[in-house]
Amino acid sequence: MAKKRFYILLAMLLIVTNVITFALANVVSVALPNGKVIVSREEYQLIKKYSKLFEIEKTLENRYVDRVNSSILLEGALKGMANSLEDPYTVYMNKKEFSDFMTQTTGTYGGIGIVVAVDKEDHIVVVSPIKNTPGERAGIKSGDIIVEVNNKKVSGKNLDEAVAMMRGPQGTEVTLTIMREGKTFTKTITREIIKLETVYDEMLPDKIGYIKITMFDQSTADDFKAALDKLKSQGMKGLILDLRDNPGGLLEETIDISNLILPKGVVVTTKGRVDNKEYYSKGPGLGLPLAVLVNKGSASASEILAGAIKDRKVGVLVGSNTFGKGLVQTIVDFGDGTGLKYTIARYYTPNGTNIQGKGIEPNYVVELPESYTLQDTPDLKGDTQLIKAFEIVKSEIK
C-alpha cells in the first residue's frame, strides 16, 4: 500500500514539474526602467520586433531639438505603416479623418462634392462631381487631375490628406489647382453641406423608365426600390439605368439593388488572402428590357453592378469605358474614434474578370459630343448615349 502511494505521489510530482517547466518556457522576464515584468513569450517577441520603434520614440521625446508630442509620433508611425504598402486605398485615419469618412458613407458631409481616385501614374483624378454640388457648379469634370489643394502639391501618396483638405465647414473656401488636357488652372470653391440624393427617376416616352444612381450610400437601395416600384405602377415596359459618373460606394447596397434587377445567381466574387466570397442575387430579376449607361466616371460598386448585368446578359451597357477600380476595401473601427481602411480583396465579375486598371467596355460604345455636358435630367435630344440606350430598349419592348 505504501509503495502504491509512493508511485502516485511520484506521478503527481512529474505532472506538476512538467506544467511548471512548460509555463516557464513560455514566459520571459523583461527589464524595464522601474523594474522587471513577466510577459508571455509571444509578447516578448513583439517587444523585440518593435524595439527600434520604441527607441526612436524615446530618442525623439528626450533629445529632439523641440519638444515633441508622443501622440503625434504614434500617429505618424501608424500612418507610415499603412502608407508603406503604397496602396492609396489603405490608410490609417485619425479621429477627424475617420469621422469624415464615416459621415460621407451615410450621405451628409461638408465639402465641395467631388469623388476622387488614384490613376496608374499616382495622380489624384476626379472620378465624378456629385450632382448639384459646388464642385459640379464650378465646372469640375471627370478626368480632371488635382495637382494642388490650397497651394500644397498632392498626389496618390497623400490621397487621404488631400481629401481631408478639400472638406471643411460650410461657407469656407478651398482652392484647387487642376490639370485638364495638359493645361493647368485654379478654381476657388466655397464648401457646402453635401446632402447626397443618390437616386433620380423619370418616365420617358413609350413607357420606358429612367433611373439615375449617383453613388451607393446607406439609403440608395431603399430609394432605388421606391423609384422602381413607382415606375412599375405607371406601367413601365423597359428600363434605362444611368450609372455615369457614379464613383461607387457600399458593396452591400449594390447587392441589394442587384436583387431587384438580376435573376438568381452570382453578382460578384471577391478574392483575397483571407476574404473569398461569392455574392448572389436572390432574383427573380427585372424581367424587362434593360440598358445601362456607363462612362469613365463609373467606378467600383457601379462597375460591379454593370459588370454583372453585362456578364449575365440581363441587359446591355451603352457609353464609354468605365474607370477600372476592382479593389475591395474594409474598415477596422478601433473604438476610440480612429480607424483603418484597407484593401482586403480584388473583385471579379461573374465571368471571372478583374477590371482593376482596365475598366469595362460597353456592348455599345457611344461617345458624347465634345461640346456636350451631361444634364441633370434625361435629355433625349443631345445626349447621344441616352438616345442610343432608348432606341435599344424601345426595340426590345414586346
UniProtKB/TrEMBL annotation:
It holds the Pfam family CtpB_N-like. One of its GO terms (molecular function) is serine-type endopeptidase activity. It comes from the Bacteria. Its EC number is 3.4.21.102. Residues 101-167 form the PDZ domain. This is Carboxyl-terminal protease. Belongs to the peptidase S41A family. It is an enzyme of class 3 (hydrolase). SUPFAM superfamilies: ClpP/crotonase, PDZ domain-like. The lineage of its organism: Bacteria, Bacillati, Bacillota, Clostridia, Thermoanaerobacterales. Keywords: Hydrolase, Protease, Serine protease.
